[in-house]
Specification:
Layout lengths: L1 E2 L4 E5 L2 E4 H23 L4 H26 L1 H6 L14 H19 L3 H19 L1 H6 L13 E2 L14 E2 L2 H20 L9 H18 L7 E2 L2 E2 H25 L2
Parallel strand pairs: 1-4
Antiparallel strand pairs: 2-3, 4-5, 6-7
Helix pairs in contact: 1-2, 1-5, 2-4, 5-7, 5-8, 7-8, 8-9
Length: about 260
């Protein structure tokens, strides 16, 4: 059993630094350093990488926030200033991924860049950054799962429990499951597939998207208060579409190489 120590890391007078913001910042810095090392190893110009990382981070933050606000509009409509309070949590990673890829694709098109090699460079970094960033949910006591009595159960404060589950104290730490899954995806990409797939631009990125979507689909089924699209969880539906797109892309790359 474990529990969050609280949302605030440092509080000095009117200045408050929250764990969520620190963890997300640390995850982005770690991912950027890893991507920079990889672009140097591949002998590519790091200049475009800097632009791509900045654009991906900004677009990811906007896309992730838009996803969270869209699916929880009833809450944010009553508290519009909370839309800007990203340091308090509430970022949809699927929205962040889609927003980042869309913005980077537009940037590459405008600059005449071959964006796929740079996406491959960033794919392992993205998985690692997600593994670290998920711990922000732990400190905020959000994105947890159904009640459980397993040894690794997560204590949730009464104020953060959904109304139908007020009598329960312990829940599945789905943030931990996602963190461990992302860490596994990182190890697979970085240590086993990074070099073998280097000569197939886009392949590593598609594997990353497919693996992430697969894990997210199953873990999402445990979560409470997950946004719904009709009778389906929104994240599960998007994960299915992402997995199919990744599988289709890999099949296309395979056919393209066999035809050469």
């Amino acid at each position: 059993m474990f529990a969050s120590p609280g949302t605030i890391a440092v509080e000095i007078g009117p200045v408050t630094i929250r764990w969520y913001g620190l963890i997300i910042t640390g995850a982005l810095v770690l991912g950027t350093i890893l991507a920079y090392r990889e672009v140097i190893r591949r002998g590519r110009d790091p200049g475009p990488l800097v632009d791509i990382v900045i654009i991906a981070i900004l677009a990811g933050l906007i896309g992730g926030r838009f996803y969270a606000v869209f699916f929880d509009w009833e809450f944010y409509a009553q508290r519009p200033l909370k839309i800007l309070a990203v340091w308090e949590g509430g970022t949809g990673i699927l929205g962040a991924i889609l927003g980042a890829f869309l913005a980077v694709a537009v940037y590459a098109k405008l600059k005449g860049l071959s964006v796929l090699p740079y996406c491959d460079i960033c794919a392992p970094s993205a998985a690692l950054a997600q593994a670290v960033g998920r711990w922000g949910d732990f400190f905020n006591e959000e994105a947890f799962g159904t009640p459980t009595d397993l040894p690794w159960k997560l204590y949730i404060s009464p104020s953060n429990r959904p109304v139908p589950f007020q009598q329960h104290e312990y829940f599945h730490p789905t943030f931990l499951y996602l963190s461990l899954w992302n860490l596994l995806v990182f190890f697979v990409l970085y240590f086993f597939l990074r070099k073998p797939l280097e000569r197939i631009p886009g392949a590593l990125t598609l594997v990353y998207l497919g693996l992430y979507a697969c894990g997210r689909f199953f873990i999402e089924a445990m979560r409470l208060e997950s946004p719904m699209l009709g009778s389906l969880r929104a994240a599960q539906l998007i994960s299915v579409l992402m997995f199919l797109a990744a599988a289709g892309g890999l099949a296309y790359l395979g056919l393209k190489r066999s035809a050469v």
